[in-house]
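Feature request disguised as a bug report, sorry. It would help if multi-protein outputs had a clear separator. Right now it looks like this:
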Amino acid sequence: MIHHAHDYREEARLDALYQLKLLDTSPSESFDRITRMASQIFGLPVAAVSLTDWDRQWFKSRVGVDHCSIPRDKAPCAQVAESTEPLVIEDMAANPCYADSVLGRAGTRFYAGAPLITSDGYGLGALCVLGSEPRQISSTELSALVDLAAMVMVQIELQHAFGRVDPVSGLATRNQFRDDLIDMAREHPGEERLAVVVDLARDDQISRIARVMGGARVDEMIREATRSLRAALGSGRAAYHVGSAQFAFLSPAGVEQVAYMEELRSAFAAIRSSSSVRFVTNVAIGVRPFILGRMSADDVLRGAVSAAQDARSVDGSVATYSSANDTAHRRQYGLLRDFGRALEAGDQLRLAFQPRIDLATGRCVGAEALLRWRHPRLGEVSPAEFIPIIEQTSLARATTQWVLDTAMDQLAKWRMGGALTVSVNISATNLAETDLIDRIRSGLLRRGLQTGQLEIELTESAIMAQPEQALAMLHDMADAGICLAIDDFGTGHSSLAYLQRLPARVVKIDQLFIRNLTQAQGSDFVLVETMIGLAHKLGYRVVAEGIETQAAADMLVQLGCEEAQGFWFGRPMEAAAFVAWLGARRPEAA
């Protein structure tokens, strides 16, 4: 058998095994009792509870075996763990796969093993019996072996009962919720229920409480919420602690959804009003309608959690599961997961370059580098969809570095003597990277580029997210000779006093203000005129984005705008197309 060391499923299986902390532990009578029973039922001298580690079969319990482990290679218990199916070898000497295995060479002729399967479906190993003579097995014997293996798993779970009860709240955990739902579906198939998740606070609120008041205060908040929840549900209803600050319960059978949600609003309004942390948290409640037996417990719970997240943005803080919202959230998560792979793939990401035109001469003086992603399954994914997701994660650094490196590589290939400038967008997250400037300078130096050939764009909103940190970073960048541009000018909330302090050379007026620039003296004309005048008074060069007509370009010349970019001049183009576009322009304008 081939052991796939890097297989994802195998890594998850091993993780499930290691979390149980069973390997290399002392023998226990609770396991030995079952192993002895297996040996007696089959009338065989050898029986064992075998756990499949990455390179060995380790025996938690054994009868008639002196050693406590054997190599995993060609061990039949490994096949049982990997397949999660029973395995019977009536004559090992006649089996080409196992005849020369460790067991086969030791004289084992008969083997029967039943899998030890976790509730998540991972095979930990096997309960096996072995004999020194060939043997057949009846269906009754095999059923008994499967039942005994299930008893072993129950014992394993009992030994880890702390995983079924949360030590802080004293409530049953997510694992118990899963098992209880399976039991309910068996007893009441087809019954309609509502799953409710109560989310006490956002993660950042929990972190803030822990940071200011300590973890003990968070624990007390959880216990307080538990008492309130138990009082609201009554003694006959089960509640579950399913996340760090998330609780779940099921509605009674036969409730009407709209009326029940009103009850939830009233009940939790009272709980909120008496909470000791009501001013620094906000409770959100999600409701997931479902039919017992038609959906897995994990999907039920995930849907209710998704609804609770939606509830944070609606009045009353109670929301019903929305398949559309859930699909959108899952797509966002999928894009985030896949983008990390795209950074490493080498063939999914690329840059497009949109020309920047000097309005006075018509010459192309630069280009904005725009990230593009061709997903292997979804096709082209809009930057407006994936960039806001990435900017909130640790991928922001790697993404910006990929764009910087690719843009500088392209500049080095073009070798246009510094006449062409390429602009690269960075995010607010990048401003926290203390080595960002050094990375940019060393990248330019390695490629023999001048600092003036690269322009860094940062939106006004990103600057105002961390204004003092941004100001310090941007001054350091300007001191290093790197040109700075304020992107989407006019859409943020910066004050004039702050704008005066920014060491930027360029402002880019957002296309929102330019797109409807159709007639002089109109409201858009007056607004753009004012913005250009303000930018000039602050010492900035002005670039207008979103130019789609000659009339708009003419008006911007009239208003004194220096540069422009937009579809009227050229759409974003990949490097080869951009070079061809440059070459096709009139010599005097190229």
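(second protein starts here, but nothing in the output says so)
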Amino acid sequence: MLENVKITRKLPLVIISFALLSSISTGMMSYKFAAEQLILSAESKLVALLDSRKESLLQYFDTVKRDLFIHARSPQTRDAVIEISEAWADLGSHQQSTLQSLYITDNPFDVGQKEALLNAEDGSAYSQAHKEYHPFFRNLAAEHGYFDIFLVDKTGNILYTVKKEDDFATNLLHGKWKDTHLARAFTMVNKNPSVGNAYLTDFERYEPSFNQPEAFFATPIHKNGEEYIGVLIFEMPIKYINSVMQISAGMGETGETILIGPDELMRSNSRFLDGENILEASVHTESAVKALSGVSGVQFEQDYRGMEVLSAFAPFDFMSLHWAIIAEIERDEILSPLRVFVSALAFSVLAGTVVIFIVGYFLASDIAKPIAAMSSMMNRIANNELDINISVSERKDEVGHMAKALEIFKSNAIEKDKLQKELTYMAHHDMLTGLPTRQLITDRLQAMTKSYSKEHFPFAVMFADLDNFKTVNDTLGHHIGDEVLKAAARIFQEALREDDFVARIGGDEFVLLFTNLREAEEAMEIAEKLVVSIETGLKLVSSTIPVTLSLGIAVCPDDAEDTTSLIRHADEAMYRAKQKSKNCCSR
């Protein structure tokens, strides 16, 4: 080859030609590899974010469902329906006009604050029952974030609401609001009022609630666990769901997560559209169509704004809800690190040509070794070995720039690993107290009940609720309330022994597991010490308003041997402690 060319020219020409070919080939492969890695990294990140949002929403809906069942079965709710129903009947045939006049038209409080009225002072049995039960349901709605709570009798009469909007005292079967999704929730439960049945509507605009997007969660109420006497309905605003979907951490400048309903309308606001988009903005994309049909995946497509995005999508199903959940980020942002890489690579090829012309073979040898080293580093990074040292990054040629790009890949991989760990921790731990959440303690309890045998020592499940916590929040402020919760969590943790467990399941409610008890009575001794410890310890945080503890206890195997029965037994015992005198424990 090139027999007629002198060696003094041929050798530099061959070396330069092969060096250029090698540089160009390496650059193209590196570009392709970098682009693939960036896209793979973005895909993994989007899927992790999508799973995190989906898990948070499922936990939220499941928590509301559990709360609905607990309160539908509580003696407080049952007695409220019975007494208010009797008082309703005493009002005669003009219940709607009478009650709406007393609690809406003549209510001295402004629109949106009608729930502040405790007693209409008309001397009726209804107002007496309202005075007795209204604080309980009003506090329940405020503490758990429900917009409104409804008690409806079997014939569709709305006996009670917290908010006292225009639907109060109307009939859901033939009244003004019979065609709303509130009426649909009642009707679906009323058709099958068996214990454990529930129905959840999709979010729709609800005229009595300022035409805001609301959903209704309904379940039957039974007397003595058998006789169907009415329906408990929670009105759920969309603000919590929207706040979960609006978290921008890890989404970059152009990323977002959105929910789409079966009507292809948004169930959460977009970061990039002005105003309210919920039930307004339409998303008719391939990802939305696939997710609504039950398919999950990741693909490039044009989004609802016409932008080229990488979209991760999945169906979101909970009871009657059939939504699509989508996480997406613009393609340009994903590949933006490549622009610097390409510019640096082009400059390095040009500079390398000049240097190779001067030093020839020695330069080729000098380049081959670091490229091989970086290839090994790339493979190690691809295998998630993130503690490697990229030692060639100080070079100023194309190899150095490739190493800098490799540092970007390493940094992205570290950030992804850190984010996944943070998301996993956030999904299973309470951010205020650092305690595990309901899911972790439920899993722990299920494992314990499944493996329990009569040769084992008894163990206890305790439901704990802080008395007067709402008063502390309202009077002293949420910052003091947060300190109370953190102090209570510390007291609980200090009381734990090896293999014991404590979790915060919401608001001022905690669940404790005490294992390896010598005898069932030891659980009561532990509980009594906890009651004293809380009363004493929280005086340092809330000196003006005493915060005490109501504690319900269930012991396995004496009280029950399965998870559901133990939780129900402990919860009912806690309510008995509340009703007895508070600042005590009950079994």
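Even a blank line would do. Unrelated, but nice: Residues 28 and 342 are 9 Å apart (CA to CA).
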